[in-house]
Amino acid sequence: MARIAVIPGDGIGPEVMGEAVRILGVLSEHPELDLEWEAWDLGAERFLRSGVTISDEDFHRLAEDYDAILLGALGDPRVPGNEHARDILLGLRFRLDLYVNYRPCTVRHSRHSPLRSPLGAAMDVHIFRENTEGSYAGVGGAIRQGTPDEVAIQEDVNTYKGVERIVRAAFDFARGRGGNRLTMVDKANAMPAAGGLWRRVFQEVAQEFTEIDTEVMYVDAMAMDLVRRPDHHQVVVTSNLFGDILSDLGAVLSGGLGMAASANVHPGRHALFEPVHGSAPDIAGQGAANPMAAILCVALLLEHLGWRWAGARVEAAVQAALEEDVGTPDLGGDASTGQVGLWLADHLRNDRNLWERDTHG
Ligand code: NAD
Ligand code: IPM
Ligand code: MN
Asked: 9, 54, 82, 319: which one has the fewest Cβ atoms less than 10 Å from its Cβ?
């Protein structure tokens, strides 16, 4: 039995999570998929109602009582500083020590690439973003705020252990895919202390993975190169902040934020799956949000739980929708969030490769 905590969150979060849960519902009818989920009331509503963003007990239960967490999005204009989002989202990443933020950027349909074909359509980049330190570590502070003498310091924290484990995770992934190219991205020319550590660790770990081609690039050049040679890059490892920025770029180059799923993982311990997109206040409540990113998170979650074959069927359902041009307005379609979710649920219900798996292996 796999237990999943579902945190719909804010804005379009509940809309896309509703469709992800619909898919979980279909899958849970499969005899081999023993799934159970529970919705969690965490987000702006609860914070505005109770003044509590997330409690120690919540963290404890989310860590102990579930096999995985599925999260929609956090961020609400009624909470201008979005402190609840920081406490919950960054809180979970940090306190559960989810050091791998895996963000695949794969073009699923050539019509989704804003770049020239065939280069654009060939994009299949897998970003490994460090997820527990860097500029997100919360080290720093401000003094004399609101005066002309204000000083604001936000430190970039890079530890040997933190860099080594994310670099290793990226190498392991590249090896699993059969000796791909791994590119490490930093800004060592302007930030030599951090860059020096990253480059040294990258070289050290590379000695254990001699079959993998390695490359080092500055982040500005990488932003340019993802557009110039989207087909060249395969696996990318980088810091928290650079990974955040490059993964939005990677998302828009491969189908848009509505298609981009991500996993936050501490291998062997905890995992949280969430779309790369945020709460999209500009389209919330309109039924216009693309639920595919959230549903592709279900695919990543299934793979994490050891049901890769089922995750592959979810991906195949999304692919089928794209082939038939079923999609929300961000994909140029005219379907609503719910219509896309229903279409995918129906497709899965009729997918013989899913249901006959127990008899045909
Ligand atoms: P956003 O990702 O919410 O939206 C950026 C643009 O993409 C908007 O135009 C939006 O309409 C569009 N978009 C996003 N998801 C979409 C989807 N599924 N279907 C169709 N269009 C989609 O980023 P933002 O506007 O910078 O942030 C809004 C709020 O979300 C902020 O409070 C931010 O802090 C928060 N945020 C949260 C997360 C998270 O919870 N993981 C991630 C990013 C941003
Ligand atoms: C993301 C988001 C978050 C981040 C924000 C909401 C703190 O942009 O998941 O990419 O920067 O990590
Ligand atoms: Mn982001």
From this structure: 319
Q: Is 239 exposed, middle or buried (0-12, 13-18, 19+ CB in 10 A)?
A: buried
Q: CA nearest 241: which of 135, 90, 93?
A: 135
Closest to 17 in 3D by CA, of 312, 361, 282, 273 = 273
For residue 131, give the ligand 2 atom closest to its CA. 12
| Residue-level pLDDT at 3 | 98
Q: Which atom of ligand 2 is nearest to the CA of 74?
A: 6
For the chain, what is the largest distance between any 2 Cα atoms, rounded to a whole number of angstroms?
Answer: 72
Whole-number Å distance, alpha carbon 243 to ligand 2 midpoint, is 10
Q: How far is the CA of 20 from the centre of ligand 2 (A)?
A: 20
Mean pLDDT of 254-262: 97
**Separation between Cα atoms, residue 158 and residue 136, nearest integer Å:** 10
pLDDT at 178: 78
Percent of the chain clearing pLDDT 90 (strictly above): 96
pLDDT at 361: 45
Residue 15 Cβ contacting ligand 2 at under 6 Å: no
- Neighbouring CB atoms inside 10 A of 291's CB total 29
| Residue 280 Cα to ligand 1 middle (Å) | 4
Which domains does the chain show, CATH number per domain?
A: 1-108+257-361 (3.40.718.10), 114-126+133-253 (3.40.718.10)
| Residue with CA nearest ligand 2 atom 7 | 86
Please name which of 32, 103, 92 lies closest in space to residue 68, comparing C-alpha atoms. 92
Q: How far apart are CA 255 and CA 99, in angstroms?
A: 26
pLDDT tens, residue by residue, 174-204: 999 877 899 999 999 999 999 999 999 999 9
Cα 334 to Cα 336: distance, rounded to the nearest angstrom:
7
pTM exceeds cut of 0.85 = yes
> Which residues form the pocket of ligand 1, taking CB atoms under 6 Å from any ligand atom?
12, 16, 73-75, 82, 85, 89, 257-258, 274, 277-283, 289-290, 293, 328, 330
Return all residues near 360 (Cβ < 8 A) that are at least 6 apart.
none
Give the chain's count of helices (H) and strands (E): 14, 12
